[in-house]
Specification:
This protein is of the alpha/beta class and about 180 residues long. It has helices spanning about 1-5, 10-15, 25-45, 55-60, 80-90, and strands spanning about 70, 95-105, 125-130, 150-155. Strands 1-2-3-4 form a four-stranded parallel beta sheet, with no helix packed on it. The longest helix has 24 residues, at about 25-45. The chain is globular. The relative contact order is 0.10.
Length: about 180
């Protein structure tokens, strides 16, 4: 407990009596709950559940100190457009880096993202899509002023050249695109 309360303490200080309450204990508990919630959310969709329990979303949102999230829902066909909105609405407010692997999910359109309420601290956003995605018109909801790096992977999509960007995403056409040859 002293290593949590005083992370930079000398070895002898770790053997001293420790208090039963401390603000750092709460932060560590929230971080652990968030970590297990994220794993459970992923597993819920892998098992084909229609939606993850709200207590898991609450645990994820409550981890105010979390700066990075990496989630792979690849192959989770039960993860659909409304679920992505729920995920975005429950991200920690101080999140700085988000990577979402969303290949071969049930996502078809990103229209549900308009008005998503995640924090404005996001600096890096990496999203990978493959499968049945037809429109990314709601993507602009994720492009907050603090964003410095955007990696958008669109591969193995039917009619990729016909994918709908949406009016608010026209700036994406002006970005430097990199084509990776396999």
């Amino acid at each position: 407990m002293n290593s949590i309360r005083c992370p930079r303490a000398r070895t002898w200080a770790l053997d001293t009596p420790f208090p039963t309450q401390h603000p750092r204990y709460d932060a560590v508990n929230k971080a652990l709950a968030s970590h297990f919630a994220l794993t459970s959310i992923q597993q819920s969709y892998r098992n084909g559940q229609a939606q993850a329990p709200s207590s898991l979303w609450q645990a994820l949102r409550s981890d105010a100190e979390r700066k990075n999230i990496q989630v792979s829902l690849t192959g989770c066909h039960s993860f659909r457009d409304p679920d992505l909105r729920i995920l975005m609405d429950n991200l920690p407010s101080q999140l700085q880096s988000l990577r979402l692997d969303l290949a071969y999910t049930g996502l078809e359109r990103l229209d549900d993202l308009a008005g998503a309420s995640f924090g404005n601290a996001l600096q890096t956003l990496v999203i990978r899509f493959a499968g049945s995605l037809r429109s990314i018109s709601g993507l602009s909801a994720l492009l907050c002023p603090s964003l410095r790096r955007l990696e958008l992977w669109l591969s193995d999509l039917p009619d990729l050249e016909d994918i709908e960007l949406g009016v608010s995403n026209k700036a994406l056409l002006k970005l430097r695109l990199e084509e990776l040859a396999g």
